[in-house]
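Task: fold both queries, return tokens.
Query 1:
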Amino acid sequence: MAALDRVKVLVLGDSGVGKSSLVHLLCHNQVLGNPSWTVGCSVDVRIHDYKEGTPEEKTYYIELWDVGGSVGSATSVKSTRAVFYNLLNGIILVHDLTNKKSSQNLYRWSLEALNRDVAPTGVLVTNGDYDREQFSDNQIPLLVIGTKLDQIPETKRNEVLTRTAFLAEDFNAEEINLDCTNPRYLAAGSSNAVKLSRFFDKVIEKRYFLRDGNQVCHFS
């Protein structure tokens, strides 16, 4: 079997939001029984069929880079993480639906990964406000995933999901909300599975099919 082409997708977010559990679910379709803290970065691989069911279908490796979630703004911390940000093709931004701060910190994570954190010790988010222009010309596909949906009481879900819905709009990204301990949230044919597949297709297209803006040409 010929070696598969691959793309690199960063999985970013605060410590404790469930990134490792999410990556395990995405790559193995199984619940991670005993998640632990990620030190540095952990890489797992998902096999994805680009444009599945069409004449253009092709199988790719999706490398999911689960980056440790220390939020410290110290230069040394960011310099250590910076090595993982090289040659990235897509970003999954993960936040805990029960933790508002983890949602706000997604702006910091995205700017850091995109090398646009021009003021690393500054406050990027204050009461939900930030400079939208910093994301206006971003060409890296983004996906926002909210975890721990099961921990929100039914009576509070509409309120919480309304509060977090602005994230997808701000990042020009699709949004998935789920419980990483229940694979049914990513069941084949579900709206979440469709969004995920669409995101991976977009990452592959940016890496292997698109050059010079809108000009399309495939290259190996």
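Query 1 returned. Query 2:
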Amino acid sequence: AAAGLSYVGAYVINTYKSYDNFLQDKYALLPAVIIICVAVVMFIIGLIGCCATFRESRVGLGLFLAIILVIFIAEVSAFVLGFVYREKVKTDVQSTMRSVFEKYDGKNPESTVVDYLQEQLHCCGVKNYSDWTTTQWFNSTGNNSVPLSCCQQEAKNCTGHLDQPQEL
């Protein structure tokens, strides 16, 4: 389990590099760091449990049980806090995404990240393609279209025009 959590934490940190323009908050990597720390603690706790079982130590097994109970309480608390604050996180991420979409010009690093995000997640805009109609890029191009990264991968002749929403 500790190895699995270590992998997940490292994967999140590695993936963060692709989306760091959307997650401008300095605490965005905190969950990944916490996951890695939990993996280290789980390894140590597992070692304690194995040693206590091997030696048949009642004190060691009691300590192991107490640690497992504390971890269970922490997990339940984390679940409750995640449930309570889910709307705040959603609102914060959407507002940050909207600000990055406003900076889109097709050439700058934010534009590259937006294109990458839309291609990888098979999406267009923050909620849908109509989000592009309020951006500076949309108004400056004047061609009534969205970036080509909004096009579906199987759409061969997609131009990004809003009169063909089935291709977006």
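Both queries returned. Flag for query 2: The longest helix spans residues 58-84.
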